[in-house]
Structures are given as structure tokens and as C-alpha cells.
Design goal:
By secondary structure, this protein is of the alpha/beta class. It has 25 helices and 32 strands. About 1% of the residues have low confidence. Bound molecules: shikimate-3-phosphate (S3P) and phosphoenolpyruvate (PEP). Shikimate-3-phosphate (S3P) binds next to helix 18. Keywords: Amino-acid biosynthesis, Aromatic amino acid biosynthesis, Cytoplasm, Oxidoreductase, Transferase. This is 3-phosphoshikimate 1-carboxyvinyltransferase.
């Protein structure tokens, strides 16, 4: 990549980058200059550099890349000393934590910032320093920000980018000003606070005792006060403006919390703490713009499921996802405190929870499925500070569209790569006829969704073209704020959790046949919600037990709302052995324990009326069909193509890879039952695909390897442990 690279400075960052260039053979010759002879000698002794120079001008002679890796305040004097020695085509780059002062220094020295100068900042420091602290993997999966100027040569920027990518970094570009503003908040301010806290404590007379008894909190909060003082001294001056502005914002925050404590305002204190705790967890995901699970786990999460085994015992799968979303939404919009038990602590429902925290609602938990929501009433939501990040969750985005369309403030909703491909015009269109100003700003009516607040909505009469509970619910929710009546007719029955829960919160919703009516202007009153286990999660075990010889399993406390029981109907039509026990009503939703025993399944033509009632269960039903005797035909299910993945194509591909005869059609699939082989399949980040193929191993002749499984955490945290406990030979591998 380069013939001769010269480093000015060989501290942690410089020497780590030199190690990368060596390890990856990206430079024929590496030389360096340092203020310390010892550093140069050490670097030569360990084979890091070919030659060391006391004078920076000597080091840069003949170099095609010069890396400035010394403290930022030395930039101007170093540039002065090398000005005559760098060639006209030499690329210059730096690694400083501030960019404005570096660029200004370059402009002063050269008259204008040279076109081959590419300012850069690897965000990979640590409190360690020195040539021996460097590591070749320091930059792996870290971000490097480049801040090229409008006149910087594109090819030079591209070469510097390639170098950092070779170091394993993710390279971003932004303006110099933006960089300094962002870093002031995320890096410089925390260092400022850590240094000043430790200094303040160290000044106290009993400081020895204080440090002796210092607990983990002190250690964690102040780790970075062990960083290089000279470097941070320079940074504090170099980005003075940015740091002071960040400090002012911080001081206001401290004052707010202080005042709340002084006033014994427990709700305000709890609000600040719960929002902060959640934000700490959430920011990483929002910034990465990917599914939470993926960010936590950038590697491929693979399921390896050995053939055979059976399912036995009692299993309680996590809470219903649809009901969990709605409990947060209605609880937030209600007057009073709503307590939820059995809440699904999966990423999708947590995205909804975070959205309401972003809009100022105080929400305690979740802890062991318990959530306490301090409702703010229908007019109490506040403008969120940023775009609302819905992760992988279509339900969050479509239901929230209805709520946000009626607020006074503007909002934007974004999602992960899967959600960013899903159709949003289906909800935007009816909301527009109600008077909403809503845009789908993606390429094909897809997210981000942008909503202008302050619109007066009016009720509509809407005949839904697709059977979608999300669209129905989004329009119904908007109807809470609309003038007059909103009347919705569905082409086929879809899940009615919104209607039931609205009634549970004391709101009048009328259902007559396929028509639902709601009038705006009422209020929601807080209530308690017991979320049953999710029949869509139980479905994997129903299919698993049906296909596995010897299986006999009881699924506890499963929601059997009549609009969700397609899986029971279809499996029974195929000859499945399912018994409902202890049927009861819990919080307005029917619930039962379901016993499932192995049965000889037969292929069927699936009843189209069952399609919306089993819409999320087809990935697992396709596995049942593959194990059945004869042919199974599904039609009328084109909706499957616009879920987290194209569930028709992705399931067909996987089944074919395992030797099953599967033929995808535009609106369904034809599957010939027969033996299932072992092999490798890809879930395309779709939780339900991953879990369905895991169950297929119960009847396969070889191990099934399933790739890209991190998103199982969106709807079914703990799936692997629960399935293993019941008898599936599943393990997780990261690679
Ligand atoms: O309203 C809901 O909670 C859901 C409705 C269904 O989506 P559609 O409305 O797109 O069919 C379903 O697939 C989704 O998992 C949850
Ligand atoms: C389609 C699903 O969810 P959502 O639309 O909320 O992403 C699902 O869970 O299968």
C-alpha cells in the first residue's frame, strides 16, 4: 500500500498503527521520529521500525505517507519543521482527538491546508500510553473518523481510509466542526470530569482513606483519569469551545438532578435515572443503526443443532410480543400507573419501551417481566431528543405512526436494515386521509418515517386493503385523538389485542362483525396487565413436539386469543395431537396450558381463513409440512414476503438446502413431505426462520447449522436454553 511511512510520535496510537502496517505488510519501510531516543531504540529493538530519527524533517524525507501521532498541541511546530521536507505528493494524516486546531495549524504553516492532508481520529485510545502499550488489534471494530476538507484530494482520503480498514476499523467521514462538537461530549467531557473528580477527592485531607475504601463505582467512573496528562492538557485547550459548551449542558443536568433530590421529587429522580439507564443501554444500538442483538454481537451467531432428540416436560415461553408492545403504549398514554407482569424482555418490545422513555414517560423495569409505567395521559408525551429507533420491529413503527401523527411535535422513526426494507405506506396512507402529515422517506415507501406534528386529525371510514393488525391498530390509535368517529373494516379477522386492551383501559371500542369503531376525545385509565406466554413462540415447541417421536410437552399459560389460534387449527388439520387444558381468562385475554404429543402429520391444503390467524407461524408450519406425509399447499399468504425477511423465499431456500422438495409460489409454498437432511441454512437475520430450522433438527438425519441467529433475541430471549432444557441438542457458536 505504501513504500515508506514515517511516524512522528510512537505512543499508543502511533505504535499500534505501525504494528498493523508491519503485520499486514502494508509498507516496505517504516521509520519514525520521536522526542525520546529510548522510544526509538525500543521500537527498533522490537522490529517495529527500520530507522529512527531525532529530527522529524529527516524522518519524512522520501515518505509517501506521514502519520502525525504526537500530542495535538505539537502539530504546528512539527508541521513547521517538516514543511520543506515533505514531497508535493506525500499524504499527511494525523490521529489527534481534536480536528479544528489541527486543521488551523496546517493552514497557518502551509498557507492553505495541503490537498493531501487527511485529518483523522481513531477512537481507540486507552489510559495506557507508550510504544510498548501498542497492539496490532487496537483498532479492530473501532471507529475511525476522517474529516477531509472540501478540497482534500479524494484519492488521498481513499488511501487513508483503506489503511484504517486494513486495521479492522470502521471508517466514518464528517466535517471538522461536527467532529469536535461530538467528541467534546462523548470523550473530552468525560475525561474532564474524571480528572477533576479524582483531583477534588485527592485534595481532601483523608484522601488515603477515601481511595482505600473506593468502591467499584469510583474505579469505573475514574478509570480514564489515569490517562496521559500531557495529551489531555493539549486536548482541553485544543477543543476549548466544544468542551465548555458540553460542560454547560452537563452542569444544567447536574443542577436538575440536584434540585429534584433537594425537593424530594421522587418521580423526577426516578425519571432521570431510568432514562439514563435505558439510554446507556440503547445508544450503542441507535448509533450503530442495527438490531440490538447484532450490535452486542457483531459476529455471526450460529446455532448448531444435532439431529434427533425429543421434547419433554413443562415449558413457559416468554410473554406475548404484540400484547407487550401495546401494554407500553396504552400504559404511557393512560392516566395513572400501569403495572405489567409477564412483559416480553425481547428487543422488539424494548424498542417500544425506549420510544416512550424518549418521549418523557417514566417507566420502571423491566425486571423479571415486571414493568411500572407512570402514564402521562393522552396529551402528555414530550418531543423525543432524537429519531426514535425501532430496531427490527414492524409493530413498533406502524403502531407508533398512528400515535405520533397526532402529537404536537415532529418525529422521525428509523430501523435496522431489515425494518428499513419493509413497507410503511400501508399505514401512512390511511393516516394521511385522517389529516396526518407523514412521509416514508426510504426509497420504496420504506423507513425512515417522518411525521410533522401539530395536525388536527379527523375520523375516517377505512376499508383495509390488506389484513394487517398493525395497520388496524395504527389507525385505531390515531382515532383516539381524531375528531369524530374512526371506522375500520378488515378484509379478514386479524389479532384484536388493541381493541381488547383499549377496553381494558376503559375506552369504548365497538366491534360489529369485521367493523371496528372508535371515537376520539376520551381518556385511558391505568390498569394492570398480565401478559400471557406468546403463542407465536410456543409454536416452535408445538411443531417440534408434533414432529419428534416420543415427544410429550406442556406449554404453560399460552394466550389462545381466537385471532391467534391459526397454528392450533392448522396443526390439528394435519393430524397434530394438541390438548387445551385449564382454559381461563386473564386480563381480558383467553389463556390455556397446551399439551402437545408426537403425531403422524399429513399434508393438507391450508385453509386461507387461517392465514391471518397464523401469520407469524408459517416458518415453523413449513417445517411441520416437510415432516408430514404427502403434499402441503399454502396460498393467500403473500404478506409473508414483507416480514423480517421474505419468509417464503428464505424458508424455501433453507428447506431445499436440507433436501426437502419445496416450491415457492408468489403467495405461498408447495411442500412435499419426506426426509430432512443435515446441512447449512441462513436465517437472514429473521428470528422465526432461525428457530424454525432449529426444530427441524428433531427429525433431520444430520446436524443443521443455522447462520445469522442474533435476532432471536428480538422475540424470544432465552430460546436456546429453554429448547435445550426440553431436549433439543442445540448449541451456539460465535464466529
Ligand atoms: O399487530 C401486531 O402485533 C402484529 C401483527 C402482524 O403483522 P401485520 O399487521 O403486518 O400482519 C404480525 O406479523 C406481527 O408479528 C405482530
Ligand atoms: C412480523 C413480526 O414482527 P414485526 O412485524 O413486529 O417486526 C414477527 O414477529 O414475526
Amino acid at each position: 500500500m505504501f513504500a515508506r511511512v514515517a511516524f512522528i510520535g510512537l505512543g499508543l496510537i502511533g505504535s499500534s498503527l505501525a504494528r498493523v502496517l508491519r503485520a499486514e505488510k502494508l509498507a516496505d519501510t517504516i521509520v519514525a521520529s520521536s522526542r525520546s531516543d529510548r522510544t526509538l531504540k525500543t521500537a527498533q529493538d522490537i522490529g517495529l521500525i527500520d530507522a529512527g530519527y531525532a529530527d522529524a524533517a529527516d524522518a519524512v524525507q522520501g515518505a509517501d505517507l506521514v502519520v502525525l501521532a504526537m500530542p495535538v498541541c505539537a502539530t504546528e511546530s512539527v508541521l513547521h519543521s517538516i514543511r520543506e521536507a515533505v514531497g508535493p505528493d506525500t499524504i499527511l494524516t494525523d490521529v489527534g482527538s481534536t480536528k479544528g486546531n489541527v486543521v488551523e495549524a496546517a493552514a497557518r504553516v502551509f498557507g492553505e491546508v495541503p490537498i493531501h492532508f487527511v485529518p483523522g481520529h481513531p477512537i481507540a485510545g486507552s489510559e495506557q500510553s507508550g510504544v510498548l502499550a501498542g497492539k496490532a488489534d487496537l483498532f479492530q471494530r473501532h471507529k475511525v473518523i476522517l474529516t477531509p476538507l472540501p478540497h482534500t484530494a479524494a484519492e488521498s482520503t481513499a488511501r487513508v481510509r483503506r489503511m484504517w480498514e486494513a486495521a479492522g476499523a470502521e471508517v466514518l467521514e464528517m466535517t471538522v466542526e461536527r467532529h469536535d462538537e461530538v467528541l467534546a461530549k462523548t470523550s473530552h467531557l468525560p475525561h474532564f470530569l474524571a480528572f477533576s473528580l479524582v483531583d477534588a477527592l485527592a485534595r481532601e485531607s483523608q484522601n488515603l482513606d477515601i481511595f482505600r475504601y473506593a468502591a467499584g463505582g469510583f474505579r469505573d467512573f475514574t478509570r480514564i483519569a489515569g490517562s496521559d496528562p500531557l495529551m489531555w492538557h493539549d486536548i482541553f485547550f485544543a477543543n476549548e469551545r466544544g468542551i465548555l459548551a458540553a460542560l454547560d449542558g452537563f452542569t444544567q443536568g447536574v443542577e436538575r438532578l440536584r434540585a429534584a433530590v433537594v425537593a424530594h421529587d421522587s418521580e423526577a429522580v426516578l425519571g432521570i435515572l431510568t432514562r439514563a439507564q435505558a439510554a446507556r443501554h440503547h445508544f450503542t444500538h441507535m448509533l450503530a443503526g442495527t438490531a440490538y442483538a447484532k450490535t452486542m454481537n457483531p459476529k455471526n451467531l450460529q446455532f448448531l443443532v444435532e439431529a434427533g432428540g425429543s421434547l419433554k416436560g413443562q415449558v413457559r415461553v416468554p410473554g406475548d410480543k404484540s400484547i407487550s408492545h401495546r401494554s407500553i403504549m396504552l400504559g404511557s398514554l393512560a392516566e395513572g400507573v400501569t403495572e405489567v407482569t409477564g412483559f416480553l424482555e425481547g428487543e422488539d418490545a424494548l424498542a417500544t419501551l425506549q420510544a416512550f422513555r424518549d418521549m418523557g414517560v417514566v417507566i420502571e423495569g423491566p425486571k423479571n417481566g415486571e414493568v411500572r409505567i407512570h402514564g402521562v395521559g393522552l396529551h402528555g408525551l414530550k418531543c423525543p431528543p432524537n429519531a426514535i429507533y425501532c430496531g427490527n420491529s414492524g409493530t413498533s413503527m406502524r403502531l407508533l405512526s398512528g400515535i405520533l401523527a397526532a402529537q404536537k411535535f415532529d418525529t422521525v422513526m428509523t430501523g435496522d436494515p431489515s425494518l428499513s426494507k419493509r413497507p410503511m405506506e400501508r399505514i401512512a396512507k390511511p393516516l394521511r386521509t385522517m389529516g396526518a402529515v407523514i412521509q416514508t422517506t426510504g426509497e420504496k415507501g420504506t423507513p425512515p418515517v417522518s411525521i410533522k406534528g401539530g395536525q388536527a386529525l379527523k375520523g375516517i371510514v377505512y376499508d383495509m386493503p390488506v389484513a394487517s393488525a398493525q395497520v388496524k391498530s395504527g389507525v385505531l390509535l390515531a382515532g383516539l385523538w381524531a375528531e369524530g368517529e374512526t371506522v375500520i373494516t378488515e378484509p379478514a379477522p386479524t389479532r384484536d389485542h388493541s381493541e381488547r386492551m383499549l377496553r381494558g383501559f376503559g375506552y369504548d371500542v365497538k366491534t360489529e362483525g369485521s367493523t371496528i369503531r372508535i371515537r376520539g376525545g376520551g381518556k385511558l385509565t391505568a390498569t394492570n396487565i398480565d401478559v400471557p406466554a406468546d403463542i407465536s413462540s410456543a409454536a416452535f415447541f408445538m411443531v417440534g413436539a408434533s414432529i419428534a417421536p416420543g415427544a410429550d410437552i406442556v406449554l404453560e399459560h399460552v394466550g389462545i386469543n381466537p385471532t391467534r389460534v391459526g397454528i392450533l387449527n392448522i396443526l390439528r388439520d394435519m393430524g397434530g395431537d394438541l390438548t387445551l387444558m385449564n382454559e381461563r381468562i386473564v386480563g381480558g385475554e383467553p389463556v390455556a396450558d397446551i399439551r402437545v404429543r408426537h403425531a403422524k402429520l399429513k399434508g393438507i391444503k391450508i385453509n386461507e381463513a387461517d392465514v391471518p390467524l397464523a401469520i407469524d407461524e408459517f416458518p415453523s408450519l413449513f417445517i411441520a409440512a416437510a415432516c408430514a406425509e404427502g403434499t402441503t399447499v399454502l396460498t393467500g399468504a403473500e404478506e409473508l414476503r414483507v416480514k423480517e425477511s421474505d419468509r417464503i423465499q428464505v424458508m424455501a431456500d433453507g428447506l431445499i438446502a436440507l433436501g426437502v422438495k419445496a416450491t415457492p409460489t408468489p403467495d405461498g409454498m408447495i411442500i412435499e413431505g419426506g426426509p430432512i437432511g443435515g446441512g447449512s441454512v441462513v436465517s437472514h437475520g429473521d428470528h422465526r426462520i432461525a428457530m424454525s430450522f432449529a426444530m427441524a433438527a428433531l427429525r433431520a438425519t444430520g446436524t443443521i447449522e443455522i447462520n445469522d441467529c442474533a435476532n432471536v433475541a428480538t422475540s424470544f430471549p432465552g430460546f436456546v436454553e429453554l429448547a435445550r432444557g426440553a431436549g433439543l441438542n442445540i448449541r451456539v457458536v460465535e464466529n
